[in-house]
């Protein structure tokens, strides 16, 4: 009922109506305080008061207006009319006044509401709030080259900061100017992407952050390309079929995710492909993912997608919390399609060796303003030390700083965290501690906000005209309360050994002032109260107490306190005592150990483990299962998260290995003691080898056998495929027909194919499904049964028979078998009637006129190829009962190749047997024999053996008791079966035959044969299956018995059954027929060997060879003849091994009879010798021979390196060289572009192919192919655009081709071509530049008054310019100094009558447009009579020039040298050209120059030949070299 509101101007108290739109108060609370009710008035009372207040007194005629009688009558008539009019006016005026006042009240209330709403932002500013998206991002699909705008609206306090991300990476507008634009206008955040490209297709997210947390909104942008632009999908052409709902689709699951294994910190995806009909891109099917039957929601820890023919669940940040059974449920047209598989998540590497694994499932409960209770699950400890406690950490949302909450480890899996700040959001995590260290932290908990839950209970909401919500706090209703009331209901909500948590209810009234609490304690019954939270202000009605003494009982009381004072103390709590860890109560302490553990085989890599629940469960969380390899000491965890059920499939085991298992129970106090180990079990796919499916197929044909109103008895048919072993367990699940959730009916296995399901609700419809199990494990579940109504059966007739099956199906007959009904009715069942009808017909025919007492019947007279169905009715004294469930249709047609049971006698053993050869069989099939249609089982009178398709039933001691009808059924087939009736006459006939057979001969494994032994001896032998110690035998050769003596050794071995004769000297006289006659008890046999003709000659040749080999090995010999190997550096080694050598034994190598003396002499004592052949090529063709000898003899080994052997060596070299080949390297030369491939060794004999654009390159003037020992190369001479493209070299070793490639196109070709042109120009310039060819000395010593002629030959194309310098000053031609240049070839400087002033450093600059050369000569002039100056250091003395000899001085020749990199100072004249920079491509060392006819010291370049003979010159002058390019360009 809605509360009534008194207008603000009529309230007696000064309380004000407040509006509160705080986001955290999502629930509407409408309450009314009692005091408020007493002062409220109804709307009718208010209206009545207003009417009374506004009413006026009735009109009274004054005395002076008294009238006469006739006047009075007239006056009254007039006044009556006037009075009526006034009354109407008065009523209208009163109504208008009431309406006006009501309107004023309404306007006042509206103004009050507007004023309160205007203060709403100020009120909200005081409330901390994490970010929240009011308008989230939405996905967009746009065309290429069009813009798109993503926008969202977010709120929070303080105002959040929004950042944009693309595919998890921040969006940076500066990285692509003009591409992105980020805006924030009026609280709307937007991201604008201009001219979208296909690469902009991604998931975009907006992340809002403030100090209280983070919120994220995501959306996908899909950019489509227009038709003809490479996009097959046309946007906008797919119709939006809104009328098709996803649940109307037909979905078929195809490839399903299997059992998976992950590690903490990793990621994993579970994918299930499917076929959807119709497959509409805008209507994907509805898919739900479950973990342990709990629906998962998409988020950061679980990413889900459906589409493209697959459903995908990605777990990007694995933790042990993610372990469990994952189920995908797809909603289809016919219901749901489901698939489940287990995901195991193991511990990551520990932070310290021996440290425990991380805890898991951290959650927060009982959240208050400064208190929260954190709980978690303990990790499994297998080989690690026991866990001694846990540390709990907290972190504020949006921060990465973790703070430890407890100083000492807490021993239970719960911890109360206090000291939180109101309004702040927190995450929690837990770390486990043991003696080895601290574990990795658990996954952090979900975010929780510290808020006082009591605040929301102190609010009430009132609706005004359906337009506004007015939120009223209890503070407004309590009046002006100052001192709060006392708390109530003080009690202990958590009691552990480490701590006790106190809880209480807040006071009422509490007042408006901030409230906190004070707690006191005392020993129970003493009354000595002591405050315990002196340093902490408690704002929440929870508080953990840690410092209580063991064995003492305490009482607690609480005070409410605010700034006005303290309340009275609450009532004391009941006495509280800490409970020991082991627990004095049933619910305290670790649980007891689980019971018996049984392990059975499941698949080729898994085992099915079952156990009994502990006797003292104590609030179980689940179980941990451990395993170990039998014989090993270390245990390993099978699961890493507590498992709730008592059966578990352990996956990931090694096939064929034997394991044992144990189980521990888990609760909040930790792990129980280990259970006893299970019996060892081998992990195999099935009982037989090679079985792919070890578990049975699904049962089928679920039917109701009985119902009593509270339970239903079910039956079902056994699986068509048993999986390789007998089905010995069934598990039944049930569900309400209106529900989708299945529940287990039985935890322990059911051995029979019937089950009574208890605790059902009468009148309710149920569905059931069944799983079969065998020694290999539990198979797939059956299809759900038809809905069955739980309604009690009360009829007198019997219930239906069940489990109808068929045997011996032939063209005209078959045998029907069934089981007796469970519900017998009012009396016992006396017989059965069998009814038959053709498939599709409702006309059933009863096959037997009289009821049969046994439970099988042969139906005859069938139409071959027709299909029939059968049903069976049981009979008792009350009549014929309900018909059984209709059988499966069966076709009256024998399987192709069907054979009947054969009765015979074993020809070797004389055993009498029945056998059936199955016309079809599979790896898991079994032969089940029956007598009179009752399974034989383990019977001592018969034994069953199976080999391939044939099974044999052998009678151990056949007699009349074995007479009867025998049948056999082959499981896991389409009904292969047969029967045979064993009669007395047939048995007697077979007994006689058995007696005749049981006189066996000596069976032989191998007849008489021979072999050649060492030394040329020949061994004749045979092997019997079995020999007794009393065996006798004779060897007969050419009709003559041979006895053991000289030249013959005869013996036998009973254990192996071998009889042998050794002939020491095998010659031509030994040709003939060899026979062995054997007698062993009553059995006998003989075996012969004819050794004549070519067979004898081959044996004699082999014997002589072995004899010679024996003689050869008496001296030094080769134990292994010559063979070759190739080392890593491609050296070919001819190797051999020798034996029976001594120090005096010699070893020699030969090639074509020429001895080879290796650098390292062979060491025969090492047992091996080798001859290295480096740089192997065709020159190494030939016949190699190794000769070994000493005084005892010699041995020779020959190795012919030619033909195929040569090719094999080249291929072996190519194998190593090809593997070592580097990538192709580009090298430019003046002649073209060269591609080089470096390798450990290269020879032209290797099969090497160069290709250009997949076309083979042949060596030519354009494409030159060659190589060195270190590399292979291919040069493109004078390249052009035609030579662009992809180049490769293929090195083949006969088995594998090693390929290296290079893409000579684009920028690579452009750079290479430019470098080639530069080198070509530089080479041309170097070839044609100006230079001094020869003729100038380094140093000249001349006497004054003589004439000095410095003449040289210069060359250049075009003809160079020549300039002479003295001391860096240009020399002009005068009469004293004459400069000539003849024919563009000979340059001369002649100084007539030299003087000492002519001494100095002379130089010549020869230059043309391609460059030049600058050569210096030192001239020394001495006076007549002076001692000739000593030559400079390093030069021989040079005689001075004499006039008689020549007018010129004698120069000292100099050796040409490479150009100097140090520039020579240029002349200081103004007309001297400016210096030029030397081309980096110049390679003076490559310039060919003539050689000098005189010996000179070595130079980096060849010495040029002088055009004219010159005297021998001394040591090179220290002046700059002659072949130095001029630093100045040629003069114009």
Tell me, briefly, the overall form.
flat
Q: Give the C-alpha Rg.
A: 56 Å
Number of helices: 10
Number of strands: 101
Q: Termini distance? A: 116 Å
- The fraction of residues assigned to DSSP E strands is 35-45%
- The helix content is 10-25%
Structural class: mainly beta
On the 0 to 100 scale, the average pLDDT is 81
Poorly predicted tracts of residues: 1-65, 229-243, 581-587, 686-693, 1433-1532
Question: Major sheet: order of its strands?
Answer: 96-95-99-100-93-101
Largest sheet properties: 6 strands, mixed
Topology record:
Layout: H1 34-39, H2 43-54, H3 69-118, H4 120-125, E1 129-135, E2 140-143, E3 148-157, E4 161-166, E5 169-170, E6 180-185, E7 188-193, E8 202-210, E9 213-224, E10 250-253, E11 260-263, E12 268-277, E13 287-291, E14 294-295, E15 303-307, E16 310-315, E17 324-332, E18 335-346, E19 360-365, E20 371-377, E21 389-396, E22 403-404, E23 414-418, E24 425-434, E25 437-438, E26 448-449, H5 453-456, E27 459-464, E28 468-473, H6 474-478, E29 488-495, E30 500-505, E31 516-523, E32 530-531, E33 542-545, E34 553-562, E35 565-566, E36 576-577, E37 597-603, E38 606-611, E39 622-629, E40 636-637, E41 647-650, E42 658-667, E43 670-671, E44 681-682, E45 700-707, E46 712-717, E47 729-736, E48 743-744, E49 754-757, E50 765-774, E51 777-781, E52 788-789, E53 802-807, E54 813-819, E55 829-838, E56 845-846, E57 856-860, E58 867-876, E59 879-883, E60 890-891, E61 902-905, E62 912-917, E63 927-931, E64 934-935, E65 942-947, E66 950-955, E67 964-970, E68 977-982, H7 984-997, E69 1004-1012, E70 1018-1024, E71 1032-1037, E72 1040-1042, E73 1048-1053, ...
Parallel strand pairs: 2-9, 11-18, 93-100
Antiparallel strand pairs: 1-3, 3-7, 4-5, 4-8, 6-7, 8-9, 10-12, 12-16, 13-14, 13-17, 15-16, 17-18, 19-20, 20-23, 21-22, 21-24, 24-25, 24-26, 27-28, 29-30, 30-33, 31-32, 31-34, 34-35, 34-36, 37-38, 38-41, 39-40, 39-42, 42-43, 42-44, 45-46, 46-49, 47-48, 47-50, 50-51, 50-52, 53-54, 54-57, 55-56, ...
Helix pairs in contact: 2-3
